[in-house]
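PROTEIN DESIGN WORKSHEET
SECTION A - STRUCTURE
LENGTH: 407
TOKENS:
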């Protein structure tokens, strides 16, 4: 079902100039686009990176199911695309003209790159004092890591994600670009706050967001326990353990045909009755949270052995009758056909030059100014002439810029 809409979002009338690549920056600008902003994605003229690799949009042959990468498709809807050679003085002049007519500049180059191009915050604020300028980086604008390359898995490693996700002592990264997405969310939220400040004062400002800070901020709950308690380093000792500091039963447990998620630390007697072991909760080894924490491996093995006697589908209604906190553990096939996910319209189908695309919908709703997917990710340079014409360039000037390799 095509659930796209032409309804206006709350940011209708806001123009965002998007100098971003990969996921952290594009995800942040995509959020603004979902809310109605006009997002102009500035892309290099060549579709190869400076070291000769295909850029974010184009996959290596045979590695992706569509013409574009999943990474590009996941973070670039609701955008227009202009190609611009920022190493050419004329290209920077074009960018300056676009900055003067924009509300937000959003970039995620390493600190210092935009300054060297003549497009840093000071340059843009001189052209447009009310500009909201967001810099998204690996580690922030200064400090000992500022000039180091930053990627999601590195931020996960430095920020402790490997520890809270470890099993049996082996650090394990989360199987998605979690700090990229959190960095994009943090950047989008910060830009909204800066736009609200500008609405009240007329003042622009410089917003900073980083992968590492986002990794730390995302772990506030276990981090606060570590910083203020005597829990020590977060460690997950067993495959079923869902949280380094929460006693069992809390995690994913095997059944006869799959797995079931349990969060029943306050419902242990009820759980034990359901699985046919009513006396287990009275066992001195397991009769309190501290006791179950001390004897986690034994408790979880006994519970899982009992759960293996039935299928997940057989256990769920029995647990629901006792109002236990339980859910099936889904893969993507099950998740995207789950009736609640379907009811929430979490997949939007949108037309594109490469055929219908199924994209993940925004994760929130607004009753009066909805966040929507209006357009598919753009093709390379799809809106170059439209954007330049809107910026006051004539047809002849645009042709000359193209001839000189500026666009």
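SECTION B - SEQUENCE
RESIDUE ASSIGNMENT:
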């Amino acid at each position: 079902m095509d659930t796209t809409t032409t309804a206006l979002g709350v940011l209708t009338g806001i123009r965002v100039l998007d100098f971003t690549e990969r996921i952290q920056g594009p995800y942040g600008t995509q959020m603004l686009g979902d809310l109605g902003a006009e997002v102009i994605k500035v892309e290099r003229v060549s579709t190869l990176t400076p070291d000769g690799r295909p850029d974010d949009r184009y996959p290596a042959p045979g590695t992706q199911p569509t013409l574009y990468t999943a990474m590009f498709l996941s973070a670039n809807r609701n955008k227009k695309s202009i190609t611009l050679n920022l190493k050419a003085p004329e290209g920077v002049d074009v960018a300056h003209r676009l900055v003067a007519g924009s509300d937000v500049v959003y970039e995620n180059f390493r600190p210092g790159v935009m300054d060297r191009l003549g497009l840093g915050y000071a340059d843009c604020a001189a052209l447009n004092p009310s500009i909201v300028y967001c810099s998204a980086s690996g580690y922030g604008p200064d400090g000992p890591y500022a000039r180091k390359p930053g990627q999601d898995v590195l931020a996960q490693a430095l920020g402790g994600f490997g520890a809270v996700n470890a099993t049996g002592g082996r650090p394990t990264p989360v199987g998605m670009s979690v700090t990229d997405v959190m960095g994009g969310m943090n950047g989008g939220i910060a830009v909204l706050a800066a736009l609200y400040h500008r609405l009240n004062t007329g003042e622009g400002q410089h917003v900073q967001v980083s992968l590492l800070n986002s990794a730390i901020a995302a772990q506030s709950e276990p981090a606060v326990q570590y910083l203020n308690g005597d829990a020590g380093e977060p460690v997950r000792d067993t495959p079923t353990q869902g949280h380094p500091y929460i006693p069992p039963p809390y995690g994913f447990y095997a059944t006869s045909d799959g797995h079931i998620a349990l969060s029943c630390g306050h419902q242990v007697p009820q759980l034990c009755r359901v699985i046919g072991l009513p006396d287990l909760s009275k066992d001195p080894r397991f009769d309190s949270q501290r006791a179950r924490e001390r004897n986690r491996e034994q408790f979880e093995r006994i519970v899982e052995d009992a759960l293996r006697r039935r299928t997940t589908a057989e256990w769920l209604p029995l647990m629901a009758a006792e109002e236990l906190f339980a859910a099936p553990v889904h893969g993507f096939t099950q998740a995207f056909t789950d009736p609640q996910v379907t009811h929430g319209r979490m997949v939007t189908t949108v037309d594109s030059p490469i055929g219908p695309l199924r994209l993940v919908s925004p994760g929130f709703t607004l009753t009066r100014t909805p966040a929507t997917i209006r357009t598919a990710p753009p093709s390379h340079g799809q809106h170059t002439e439209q954007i330049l014409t809107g910026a006051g360039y004539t047809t002849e000037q645009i042709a000359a810029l193209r001839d000189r390799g500026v666009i």
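SECTION C - NOTES
Confidence is low (pLDDT under 50) at residues 1-6.
The first strand starts at residue 15 and ends at 19.
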